[in-house]
Amino acid sequence: MKRLKRYQYERYAILCRASYPTYFDHTQYGFSPHGRRDIYDRWRRCIIRVLWRENDDAVVVFRGSQTAWDWLVNCACTPKTITIDGKKCHVHWGFHYLLTQKSLSWQPHKRQYRHMTDSQFADIAQAADHTVLEGETVLTKLISALTPFLHAGKHISFIGHSSGGAMAIVAAAKLNHQFGGAIKRIVTFGQPAAGMWRFKQLYPFSTRTYRICCDVDMVTFLPAIPFVYWHVGRLLWLHENKIYTNTPSLFRILRVLYSWLTRPIAYHYMDKYIRRKDYFDQH
């Protein structure tokens, strides 16, 4: 399994953060002026952005939870049956629903667009799917957006934060038959578990999935049902200025508790003082 490089991590993290605001200038991140397609949920909010440039791979950004409705869907952790290579397994119902809900086109007269500049509004209008596949599911629109890349021989990366990461995992599994060869990597940040044990066994991208967790991010322990929902891929745990690989959940909790208990002593070490050298540039 290849290592995730620093520039890839930083790029994907920034794109995930940028998926939340209504306005997003994709050209600032090196994508082509026309290299963007926005896919909306049933509430006409952008839930997935497909980004690309002419001579490079495409990136699919899955947005995480923003509203109370999103969090209610996240709590719907009953199992949903899907098939991978003809074999049945179970995933989290809520994350599956986010992909299979109806996708409605954007409405240019909505309040959040009124205070935008003409150029900002034009960017969103260009990227919006308008009435293409109106009323079809989010996943169907995603397939429509990705098909040209398959024909062009482009590779695709799926990335997402929080529930967006779980959506990326489920979407990759469901699209394996059509796009398995084109999906280059899946990178998630603070992602809850998306499937049960059988799903973990059948998941086809284990060696191409990087699951990044920062310290004791509690969302990564959800759903809080031990030995029912399981994570997939390679865990990269960022803790105490180090990266730990595939650290068990219990060990993560115990190590964080130990760090909290010993923190008063740890701050006495000279390396803590040396790391603060940059503070004096602004002093």
TrEMBL record:
Q: What is this protein called?
A: Lipase
Return any one Pfam family short name.
Lipase_3
Q: Which organism is it from?
A: Salinivibrio costicola subsp. alcaliphilus
Domain (Fungal lipase-type): residue spans on this chain: 59-225
CDD domains listed in its UniProt record: Lipase_3
